[in-house]
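We emphasize that the prediction below concerns an isolated chain of 339 residues; any contacts that depend on oligomerization or on bound cofactors are therefore not represented. The input was used exactly as deposited, without trimming of termini.
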Amino acid sequence: MSSLGASKKTSAREKESELLEREDFDAGPSNLDCIEPGLWLGNLTAATDNDVLELHHINHILTVDSCPLPRKITMLPGVKTKFLQVTDIPSEDLLSHFEHTSEFIRTGQEQGAVLVHCYFGVSRSATVVIAYIMKKYELSFEDAFERVKSRRRFVGPNPGFTSQLHLYETMKWQVDKANVQFRMYRLHVAATQVKKVKILPQNCMDVVKSDPSLITVKPEPLVYRCRKCRRIVASASNLLPHIPKERPSWTDKKWSTEDREAMMLCSETYFVEPLAWMSSVTQSLQGKIHCPKCKSKLGSFSWIMGCQCPCGSKISPAFYLVPSKVEWSNMVQNVQVTV
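Result of the prediction step, given as a C-alpha cell string:
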C-alpha cells in the first residue's frame, strides 16, 4: 500500500473517532418518576433498560432528544415509540409539536403506560409533560410546573421552553396559528434557522403565507394593493403590528391579550409576514421586494439584520412595504362565486 493510501485511511479513522455516539456519554443510572398513573418522566438510561420498562408496564416511549433510541428498544414487540429531534437550547421549537406529543401521551396512558424522556429528564421531556398536564387539566404554566415538580423535583425547562409554555397557556392550550404572538414566534424560529443554513428550511415554510390575490370563497375585505398596477399584495391579517420606539417581542402577552384597537400602533411602515409571491424570501438572507405584476419596488426584507422603522422601532426579521408604494382598499375582487 502506498504511503498516500495509508495516510488517507488513517485520516478516515481519525475522523470517525471524532464522531460522538451515544456510547461516548453517560446519562447515569436509570431514573424515572411517575407524574400520574400511566405517565412516567425519566432519563435516557431508563428508556433503554428493558427491566425498567417491563417493571412499570411501559409500552409507549416518547423520546425528546438529539438522537433516537437504539433499535433494540424501537424494535421491541408491543412497544410504540415516537422520536422528536430536539437539542436543549432556548431557540429550539417545542411549542409547534405540543399537539402531537400530547396526543401520543394520551394514547399511551389509555393503552398502558408511557415514558417521556430526554437525556437527563430535566428540560426537554419535562417541557413536553408540563404542556400535556396544562392541556389535560386546563392549568396555568405555574400550576402545571408545580404539579410535575412535586413528582420529579429536578425538572427545569430552559428559559426558551418556559416562554413557549407561557404562550401555550395564552393560546388556551392549543396551537393557534392565527394568533399574532404565535406568528411572531414562528418568524423568530424561522429567522434562527435561516441564520444557520442561509436559506429557509422546509420545516419553516409555514411562515410564508398564501398569496392574498388568489381567488377564494371568503376573501378578506381589507387589502393592500400596488399603487401602480393595483395588484393585491397583502391582506390586513398579514400585517404585524408594532408600537413606536418599541421592539416587538413574541414573548409579550399584550399582542394576544390586549385590545390592539386601543393601542397606539405605528403606520409609518407596513411590516408584513413573508408572502408566497415574494419569491426571493425563501432563497436569500435579505433583498428588495418587487410587485410580482409590474415589478415596481414595494419594500425590502431581511432575515438577519432586520429593519428600523422611522418611528424608532427595530423589527427583526423584517418584511416591509413602503406606504407610499401601496394603497389600501376594501373593494372585494378576488371572490370565488359558488352556486
